[in-house]
Amino acid sequence: MKTIQIAVLCALLCSCVQTRRLERREVGASLALVTERQAKQETEPYQPNWTKVKKPFSGDSLYFGEAVFDSAGNRRMLVRLQPVEVVAKRKVIIERLGRVMIGFRVSVPRELQSRCFGIELMPVLHRQDTSLTLAPLVIRGGLFAGVQCRSEWRYDKYRHWLTGLGAQDTAARLDRARRLLVRFPQTGAARLDSVAERPRQIDYFYSQDVPATGNSGQLFVTLQGRVRALDGSIYGLPPSDTMRYTVSSMLSFVDTTQRFVKRIVKKYAEVRDRSYLNFPVNGTAIIDTLDDNGPQLARITATMDSLINHSEFYVDSVTLTASSSPEGSYAHNALLAERRARSLKGYLTDRFGREIDTLIAVRWVGEDWDGLRKLIAGEEGIAHRSEILKLIAQRTHDDGLESEIRRCYPEDYALLRRKLYPRLRAVDFRYSLRRRDMVQDTVVTAEPDTLYSRAVEMLKHRDYAPAMYLLESYHDRNYALALLSLGYDALAREVLEPLPQDPERDYMLAIVCARLGARDEALVYYRRAAETEPRYRFRAKLDPELSGLVENL
């Protein structure tokens, strides 16, 4: 450990700012679009076949090397030039199952390296308005790595000692100690963490599987990074070239033809609404502050206002029906329901004016036994539900029926009064509407299918799963495309085969058959598609399912 400390002191004495040399020369790392196969190919280092010698006094240079004779018999020097590698800045990548694989080579020159340096390189993926920082690459000099390990060891030793004391401020003291002891924290979650004992050219092929989201067909990759030196100086790497990826997907097969659905428009329409109003015991006055009456009255007036002032319909009539629960005598309940209905009509007339007085027809139901029967059928807490329903179905006298239920099933009757009876004290509205400027009683129109259009937009944005569920009932090319994009190849084939023959359908079937291992059928469909649409001959070289099949054609 003392050796490391002495070496660090010597390095610091040699230069005030260790990264100044990099700043002057603007040294940086580079990106290149190469395939993984090209990245793995070993290339022999360049060896010049000549030697340069300087004369000691004049300083002139002499070159000694191989010689050959040309066609005229003259001797010429043969010089082997250093090979030049040409790499592209743009590449086409294939989307499959909603994902794409990007690959590029990161080159770190030896001029950027030193035993005292720690290099951090962060590839950044740009897509539309979002950016994603990928896992970094870390290259550390031998001395820099030793200092990092030493500082982490010292911190761990202090942490174990402090934890054993059981002090209350352990967390705060550990935080201060880490800031003091660990000047160069190690980078976590690195894709590559390499210690370079000697500077040398380092090439790393970086591949990353990323989701293909959104409707953009372009991905961009840039390289950011920095160099940290043991003297604390930091050198930010200059901007790298931008790598551009063009995403080739199945989205070119999306059928954007507008679909229409038939809509039957009727001249007459009806709107029903139910509200629950509370009244004083044996009272008929409308009190908006009683229980939940305020919101209920607001909803009634809002509904009526929207229908009366509707731009498409006239209101021919409004039927207002008030009902009561069965407790008490039938005659009293019927009179109470009638008076409450007329009281509500008067309330609405005051709100909307005398012109609606002729629109509203008043009805009432003294005891709503049919409504009670439906409520009892859906209530599981009634012990003798079937017996009570039988009594209601066989009733001959309403007042006697309630007395019989109360006498035979007192516990169930108490539940009815507490839970179900309040729901019978209701007001039902039936609005009879007539469409404006319409002569015929029924008109059939064709309107755009908005559900289908929404599914197509989902496909364009690569939201394949929700698009598949929306398109399931259509069984067309877009539905097959969603299935293909999610890996349901056999089902996609079942959808495509019955469709009318066209180049798009045949080419998609070629891809499906190739995925399912039916190579001969895939070739048949491909040839038929390419004969009709020649551009598919070029596309097949990009699609991995067909590129191997057509390369020998």
From TrEMBL:
Protein name as catalogued: OmpA-like domain-containing protein
Source lineage: Bacteria, Pseudomonadati, Bacteroidota, Bacteroidia, Bacteroidales
Name the SUPFAM superfamilies for this protein.
Answer: OmpA-like, TPR-like
Q: Which domain of life is it from?
A: Bacteria
